[in-house]
Amino acid sequence: MSNALLNGRQVADTMLVQTRAQVADLKANGWAPRLCSISVGDVSAVQLYVRNQKRTAEKADIQFEEVHFPAEIHQEQLLAAIHGMNADPRVTGIILQRPVPQHLSIKQLQGAIHPLKDVEGMHPASIGNIVYNELELGPCTAMASVELLRQTSLSLAGLEVVVVGHSEIVGKPIAFLLMAEGATVTVCHHMTRNLSVHSRRADALFVAVGKPGLIKAEMVKPGAAVIDIGINQITLPDGSTKVVGDVDFDSVSQIAGWITPVPGGVGPVTVAVLMRNAVIGATRQKKHYESLFGPQAQ
Ligand SMILES: Nc1nc(=O)c2c([nH]1)NC[C@@H]1CN(c3ccc(C(=O)N[C@@H](CCC(=O)O)C(=O)O)cc3)C=[N+]21
Predict the structure, then answer these.
(1) What is the predicted ipTM?
(2) Is the CB of 48 under 6 A from ligand 1?
(3) Does 165 carry a binding-site annotation?
(4) Which residues contact 108 (CB under 8 A, 6 or more apart)?
(5) In degrees to the nearest 10, what's the CA dihedral of 120, 121, 124, 125?
(6) pLDDT by residue (tens digit) across 192-218?
(7) Which one of 11, 15, 49 would you pick to mutate in the ligand 1 pocket, going by the greatest count of ligand atoms within 8 A of its CB?
(8) Among 35, 117, 152, 193, which residue has the fewest nearby CB atoms (within 10 Å)?
(9) How far apart are CA 295 and CA 298, in angstroms?
(10) Which protein residue has the closest C-alpha to ligand 1 atom 12?
(11) Phi-psi region for residue 249, left (φ > 0), alpha (ψ -120 to 50) or beta?
(12) How many CB atoms neighbour CB 117 within 10 A?
């Protein structure tokens, strides 16, 4: 089976060229995008993500502010910090990394981010847009995963898609994004009785569970597109650590028609989508401001 590696770094680099040009435009009009990236506590996948956001924001010429809080922070303190960023006219985008510690309400925190600055589109008022097929700005990992499927030239209308994992920020948005394109979508999760029965039917299989080696070759339809969203840090016998996905890459890459590697697949495109969303957010604020006050005096 000839199979194609979906190169996330290449897709990300192409997106960043366009984003950088849009940033230059915004800056020329007095709207330099500024992204505030909030993380709470110390989660390795979050630290990895924020590190790559910082590096990529520099490449895209987007101002970047890492805002880190200790796991012990109280809900009210975090809400106050978010309200401060909402009110700060320099800040055009806010992302709140997940997970947050159990004692915090992610829904209330997400709801506190002003919809115009919500660069992940996870505000209850924003995530609904996906149901209405308004797909310009959405959760970055979900958008990145669908972007990589588009690289396969598979027609999405009627495509048999299986999504394994049903998180609010990845699994569910992917299902909605693909339903908007006319795909037939099945969403599996930990309560699904026989995962293989579903995964073997899929022309496109998305896996976002957080379990190394969950998907093996016999669970995949020959020729299918496999989008591996898992980001698992494993320790090798010699004690060194490595980032792997949820798919057993060596065996599945032998029969998949297309497959995304980890690292080098969904990850880099997620970061590039975040930068694109930061530009969309700043552009929306510019339009909103101009609709009220007219163009900014230069
Ligand atoms: N609100 C929210 N949105 C998220 O999208 C979100 C989150 N919270 N919490 C944490 C997870 C994790 N995540 C990653 C994205 C990219 C890489 C990434 O850049 N990976 C690269 C680099 C890996 C490396 O440098 O070794 C790769 O896979 O090639 C990693 C992890 C987004 N997340």
Answers:
(1) 0.98
(2) yes
(3) yes
(4) 75, 79
(5) 150
(6) 999 999 999 999 999 999 999 999 999
(7) 49
(8) 193
(9) 9
(10) 45
(11) alpha
(12) 24
- The token pair at 297 is 């005096």
Rounded to the nearest angstrom, the distance between the alpha carbon of 29 and the centre of ligand 1 is 31
Tokens standing for residue 14: 């192409």
Six-digit token string for 16: 């960043």
Residues 162, 202 contacting (CB under 8 angstroms): yes
pLDDT in tens, 57-91: 999 999 999 999 999 999 999 999 999 999 999 99
Check whether 95 is labelled as a binding-site residue. Answer: no
Rounded Cα distance, 98 and 210, in Å: 14
Residues 228, 208: Cα–Cα separation, whole Å: 7
How many other CB atoms sit within 10 Å of the CB of residue 134?
13
The verdict on pTM exceeding 0.90 is: yes
According to the 3-state scheme, what is the secondary structure of the chain? Answer: CCCEECCHHHHHHHHHHHHHHHHHHHHHCCCCCEEEEEEECCCHHHHHHHHHHHHHHHHHCCEEEEEEECCCCCHHHHHHHHHHHHHCCCCCEEEECCCCCCCCCHHHHHHHCCHHHECCCCCHHHHHHHHCCCCCCCCHHHHHHHHHHHCCCCCCCCCEEEEECCCCCCHHHHHHHHHHCCCEEEEECCCCCCHHHHHCCCCEEEECCCCCCCECHHHCCCCCEEEECCCEEEECCCCCEEEECCECHHHHCCCCCEECCCCCCHHHHHHHHHHHHHHHHHHHHHHHHHHHHCCCCC
Task: Find, among 182, 183, 245, the residue nearest to 211 by Cα.
Answer: 245
As given in the structure block, the two tokens for residue 101 are 């510690």
Mean pLDDT, all residues of the chain: 96
Cβ proximity of 108 and 74 under 8 Å = no
Nearest CA to ligand 1 atom 13: 49
What are the tokens at 163? 């999504």
CA 22 remoteness from chain centre = 20
